[in-house]
Amino acid sequence: MSDDEQRGRGAASVHRVGGLLGDLQSADDQPVAPRRRADAERNRAQILSAAEQLFAEQDPRSVTMGEIAKAAGVGRATLYRSFPDPSSVAVALLDEHERRLQGQLIYGPPPLGPGAPAGERLAAFYLAMLDLLERHLPLALGAETGPARFRTGAYGFWRVHVRTLLVDHGVEDPDPLIDIALSPLSPELFQFQRHQLGLSAERIGGSLAVFARRLLESGGGR
Amino acid sequence: MSDDEQRGRGAASVHRVGGLLGDLQSADDQPVAPRRRADAERNRAQILSAAEQLFAEQDPRSVTMGEIAKAAGVGRATLYRSFPDPSSVAVALLDEHERRLQGQLIYGPPPLGPGAPAGERLAAFYLAMLDLLERHLPLALGAETGPARFRTGAYGFWRVHVRTLLVDHGVEDPDPLIDIALSPLSPELFQFQRHQLGLSAERIGGSLAVFARRLLESGGGR
DNA sequence: TGGCAAACGGACAAGGTGTCCACTTAGCTT
DNA sequence: AAGCTAAGTGGACACCTTGTCCGTTTGCCA
Question: Do you know which InterPro entries this protein is assigned to (chains A, B) (predicted)?
Answer without folding.
Answer: Homeodomain-like_sf (IPR009057), HTH-type_TetR-like_transc_reg (IPR050109), HTH_TetR (IPR001647)
